[in-house]
Design brief:
nucleosome binding, NAD(P)-bd_dom_sf, DNA binding, 14 helices, 6PGD_dom2, alpha/beta, 6-PGluconate_DH-like_C_sf, elongated, three-stranded mixed sheet, Rossmann fold, 13 strands, 2 domains, six-stranded mixed sheet, single chain, N-(1-d-carboxylethyl)-l-norvaline Dehydrogenase, domain 2
Amino acid sequence: MIYSSQLVSEFEIHITEARESACNCKQLQQKSVSSAAMFGHQQGRSPNVGVDSGILTAERLEVASHEVLICRDFVKAGALKGLTPADVVQDCDITFCCVSNSLAAKEMVFGNCGVLQGISDNKGYVEMTSIDPETSQDISEAILLRGGRYLEAPVSGSKKPAEEGTLIILAAGNRSLFNDCASCFEAIGRHAFYLGEVGNGCKMSLILSMLLGTTLAGLAEAMALCDRAELSQKDLLEILELGDLNSQLVSQKGQAIIEGTFATSMPLQHLQKDLCLAISIGDQLEQPLPVTAAANEVGTRCCRSLVAAAVAEDTVHHMHWAFVLWQGFTNGSMCFSTAASVRGAYECLPLPLAH
């Protein structure tokens, strides 16, 4: 591997409710780590690329002949690590960030030693985190006030598309920055959409997540009811695959439910977070989203169960659990379902075997 003298940040952020204030970013507790994903364009040389949306994505960029700059494993191989996001922004013309949620994205920009302290005239900042439009607008205004350029660019896709370089980029904001990022978007995705003003990319990303969540909830209920009615889930899946309801998502998740292979490609808490944000947009626009609200209730209950059980991820193939599925929008009736179905559809973390 070839590494340049560019810096990549591993700015550690403590995101728990009981977070202690710190006057220096080095003092932040290391209970939760969110690293800025960075790359820089330097005049007269090929783009240097660093990504923290996953090692797999970074490897894809490397295959595409970009120089990878990322912390941890790559530092061991010779990459240099900056102490703060400001270090990276100062040394790069374009900075990418992909963290877990809106709070982490704000910390990266507005926190001590954050991005704003390194932004200057014409530097670009690309926010790839799935966040709400208001947070994106706040970040955009702050970047613009410092003379920088801003682009939101959340992605559609999870682990497998990242492996294959087939993510879909949903960009909005500065058009010239979008054009400057074309080669890097091509390295990690099969298509990059430019959707106009800041906020549009976030909205489109959340709408796609909304459709994903409701589809998975419907599939989970169908598989659970099929099992409870003593019908073959394999027969149901075969029928689905032969009809108008067939899709790659239904086929893959349905098969995972049947086989009990629940490899996590998108953490449940991230999908549930997006459902909440989509519902919030619906409320602002006075657009009812009852189906999404029901799917969100499923995710909320599941997340609470996961927290209560103090889960361990490495036991995923040995777990079977149960939780309450919300049934109906009007009568509030409840029923119990086999958790394997819901678990497989939502790809959530495992719970200990229920007795």
